[in-house]
What we know:
The protein is an alpha/beta fold. The protein has a single domain, classed as DNA polymerase III subunit chi (Rossmann fold), CATH 3.40.50. It has helices at 13-26, 38-50, 112-127, and strands at residues 3-10, 31-34, 59-61, 72-75, 86-89, 103-109, 132-136. The protein has a 7-stranded parallel sheet, with helices on both faces. Helix 1 (13-26) packs across helix 2 (38-50). The longest helix is centred in the last third of the chain and has 16 residues, at 112-127. The radius of gyration is 14 Å and the shape is globular. The protein starts with a strand and ends with a strand.
Amino acid sequence: MTQVFFYHGAADKIAAACALLSGAYAKKKPVLVYALENAVANSVDRMLWTHAALSFVPHCRADSPLAAETPILITDTLETIPHDERLMNLSREIPPGFSRFESLIEVVGQEESDRAAARDRVKFYKDRGYEVRYFDLSDR
């Protein structure tokens, strides 16, 4: 069963997501980043290029010719991507087919609309028997 992790209370949701992606890359763990909104996908892409002056996190869009050899992929669709280890959800929706992934990482900001959507997703997961683990980012 998919492990579900909620990282909530992030002052900057994109920065928190990039820090988590950087940590996953350091541990050689590939991640598929689900971002329905193009502005969110672009922000993640831009921040991964610039967030740490002395490190680089290899990443690209899932439709790139380099996707097969890149550990961090950014996408707005999950149907055609064979990756099934880690999924990071940066949308306010339930990712389609999330249950095929070993783990689902949800990143939630402090904005009330983001928090309300996250509460709905938590209820959805719990109602289906998934254990949800929480990590508070509000004091970082």
